[in-house]
Amino acid sequence: MYEGSSSIRYDEKNKSFWLNKGKEELRLNRLQQINTNKAKNVIIFIGDGMGLSTITASRIYKGQTQGNPGEETVLNMETLPYAAFSKTYSADRQVADSATTATAILSGVKINDGTIGVDGRAVRESCSSLANPDVKVSTILDWFIEDGRSVGFVTTARVTHATPAASYAHVADREWETDALLPSDPACAANGIKDIAAQLVDENPAIKVILGGGRRAFFNKTQVDPDTGKANNSNNRVDGRDLTQVWLTRRQQEGHRARYVWNYTQFTSVAPDDVDFLLGLFNPSHMQYETDRDPQKEPSIAEMTEKAIRVLQKDPNGFFLLVEEEDTLLIVTADHSHVFTIAGYSKRGNDILGFVDPIDPGQDPLDNMPFLTLSYANGPGPSRGNLTGVNTTANDFRQEVMVRTQPDFETHGGEDVAIFASGPMSFLFRGMHEQSYIAQVMGFAACVGPDKSHCTENTGNYCKQTTSGAGHSGLQWSSVVATAASVLLSARLWRDVLTN
Fold first, then answer.
1. Which positions are annotated as binding Zn(2+) (predicted)?
2. Which residues pair with 322 in a beta bridge?
3. How far is CA 323 from CA 157, 164, 211, 273, 331, in A?
4. What phi-psi label fits residue 229: left (phi over 0), alpha (psi between -120 and 50 degrees) or beta?
5. How far apart are CA 488 and CA 76, in angstroms?
6. Calpha distance 39→37 (Å, rounded)
7. Is 498 helix (H, G, I), strand (E, B) or coil?
């Protein structure tokens, strides 16, 4: 298929290849019909830091691992029929953090840097700024619960971390994951401020599936972690409670079939038909990157997504699932990008994890040292150096950076990110949007939230309940799991930088 050492296919050199390829894409797009049915279910994938350059690099990487040049590869998320862009700035920052962007996506409200689930009147680290309960924002999870539908979330981060916490918590500082990290300010106690883990367990009893990392915020300081064998973590609770047992006991007292699991063996033993509520915490902190994951200890995001869907889909009214199609609105987006670039004029098929191979000697660096295709504007990686002979494809290799930062720190990027969507009302994603618009579409499509004025028989097809598609839901869920895998693949490209 490929000519000699070249990575260009024979047929690609003929103009008819590209013309026919374009005609086929046009034909498929012309066949696309607008779906104005009501969304029974909504599933949203948020790829933390999954900017456009990360998607591009992931596409190439996937193709190259399959023995192809890579550039022509299509990720599963890229097959979704509708695409748009979202602007990721927050209420007070050009470049936003995950707490503010996730809140915008899930609530429809842009907020201040570092806060979660509270509007722009809240001041970071200030308990007194939360005195007015009206500063709290409601989210798509709240809207689904109020409508009598099931909800859950899956993350490879701590379940109390910024993005998942934005679905249920209301705090003036994203760092308040455990009561050990709450400030000593008397205003905190006076205003009844709880840490994020406590809010999840005490104030959100309707969340049916919670899967991710972060056991440490649920354990008290005397508890020994079942995996590490250690106790008295600085992030353990000081109130003496074991929130995993509090959660489990309450669900059982309510008459629900509930399970708490912390390792892969326990996870695989869960039969979705036999549980109503599932809590899984598979690491004291964040779960491992896929390349580092021990499959005997932690499930993959695809496995967790599949299990969550199988638990939630038993609800005949529908469900919402946050993951960090006929009757299901499926959305894939990012909370923000990273300062990550793809540079050089490399030949087709050049190793995306390797060095640039300039096509002209005049393009060589002035220092005559090789340089990488992938790099960061800032981060904890090394500055420019001679990498001759270095294995740049190793899992523990860190890309070069222009500006070195403190260990385990790198800033986000401020450029727009992509939105991919399919299913009911997905056609409403087109062009450029505020990130907060995403919540509006989810609520509109599912007929939930503060504005349901369109959900009447007088609005034509808008939000009528779909009755078709029952016979091929298995295919839809397989597609969702494949999408989870493509988001996971994108994570491979930023695995070496701990994100905010």
1. 48, 335-336, 412
2. 44, 153
3. 11, 9, 10, 21, 10
4. left
5. 11
6. 6
7. coil
Q: How far apart are CA 500 and CA 96, in angstroms?
A: 10
CATH 3.40.720.10 domain span(s) along the chain: 35-339+414-494
- Residue reference for tokens 């994100």: 499
412 marked as binding residue = yes
- To which H or E segment does residue 163 belong? helix 162-165
The pLDDT tens digits of the residues spanning 169-213 come to 999 999 999 999 999 999 999 999 999 999 999 999 999 999 999
One of 7, 53, 90, 98 is an active-site residue; which one?
Answer: 98
Written as six digits, the tokens of 76 are: 């599963």
Cβ count within 10 A of residue 370: 18
Determine whether 98 is an active site residue: yes
Q: Please state the rounded mean pLDDT for residues 271-288.
A: 98
CA 82 to chain centroid, in Å, comes to 19
151: β partners = 207, 320
Closest by CA position to 335, among listed 130, 139, 50, 42: 50
Separation CA 145–CA 431 (nearest Å) = 31
Q: Is 303 annotated as a binding residue?
A: no
Was 325 annotated as part of a binding site?
A: no
Nearest Cα neighbor of 140 from 345, 1, 329 is: 329
Q: Is 170 annotated as belonging to a binding site?
A: no
Separation of alpha carbons 372 and 270, rounded Å: 45
- CA 440 to centroid of chain Cα atoms: 18
pTM of the model: 0.90
Farthest-apart Cα atoms in the chain, separation = 74
Question: Tokens 């927050």 identify what position?
Answer: 90
pLDDT in tens, 434-485: 999 999 999 999 999 988 888 874 344 555 554 333 333 333 566 666 666 5
Residue with tokens 């670039």: 341
- Alpha carbon distance 51, 48 (integer Å): 9
Q: What span, in angstroms and rounded, lies between the C-alpha atoms of 422 and 278?
A: 27
Say if residue 497's pLDDT is above 80: no
CA distance 114 to 171: 9
Dist. CA 342–CA 52, nearest whole Å: 10
Question: Could you tell me if 307 and 264 are in contact, meaning their C-beta atoms sit under 8 angstroms apart?
Answer: no
What span, in angstroms and rounded, lies between the C-alpha atoms of 138 and 118? 9
What's CA 474's distance to the chain center, in Å? Answer: 23
Class assignment of domain 35-339+414-494?
A: alpha beta
CA distance 485 to 491: 10
Question: Which helix (H) or strand (E) covers residue 31, if one does?
Answer: helix 15-31
- Rounded CA-CA distance 343/29 in Å is 32
Q: Are 178 and 215 in contact (CB under 8 A)?
A: no
The closest alpha carbon to 354, from 363, 344, 362, belongs to 344
- Looking at the predicted structure, is the pLDDT value of residue 246 above 50? yes
338 labeled binding residue: no
